[in-house]
Amino acid sequence: MHYQRTVLWRKAMKLALSVYKLVPGLPREEVYGMRSQLTRAAISIPANIAEGWTGESSAEKAHFLAIAHGSLSEVETLLTLCEDLYWFPHDQTTGARSLIEETSRMLTSMRRRRRRER
């Protein structure tokens, strides 16, 4: 199956789109700080899922899934910081948080399965 057909990759893409819709609400002086960091981390999730999906070895696939999971945690942390700084109201991040939770569960499940296969 192609990675673009997976629910995991599609959820990760929706999260990246959700982040891109949120970042215009950041203060102008954060264009090269928080905005850049948040969008890079969000893009990294589906990109690493795709790269891992097409990897040659099981170890290579596991490596990229781990990177995607780390980027997901980074996005969650940055969203929390933005909320705590009152840059993003909680009601605007609900959708992104839901996608983070779902994507995290799926990545955890997939990574566990890979570890058992070794």
Sequence-ordered SSE layout with sheet pairings:
Elements: H1 7-22, H2 34-53, H3 58-84, H4 90-117
- Basic shape: elongated
Compute the number of helices.
4
What is the terminal separation in angstroms? 21 Å
SSE order, one letter for each helix or strand: HHHH
Which percent range describes the beta-strand content? under 5%
Biggest pleated sheet: none
Indicate the structural class: mainly alpha
Radius of gyration: 15 Å
Number of strands: 0
How much is the average pLDDT?
93
Which range best describes the helical content: under 10%, 10-25%, 25-40%, 40-55%, 55-70% or over 70%?
over 70%
Low-confidence stretches: none
Q: If you had to describe this structure to a student in words, what would you say it looks like?
A:
It is a single chain. This protein is 77% helix and 0% strand. By secondary structure, it is an all-alpha fold. It is elongated, with a radius of gyration of 15 Å. It starts with 6 loop residues before the first helix and ends with a helix. The mean pLDDT is 93.
Descriptive key words:
single chain; mainly alpha; 118 residues
How would you briefly describe this protein structure?
The chain has helices at 7-22, 34-53, 58-84, 90-117.
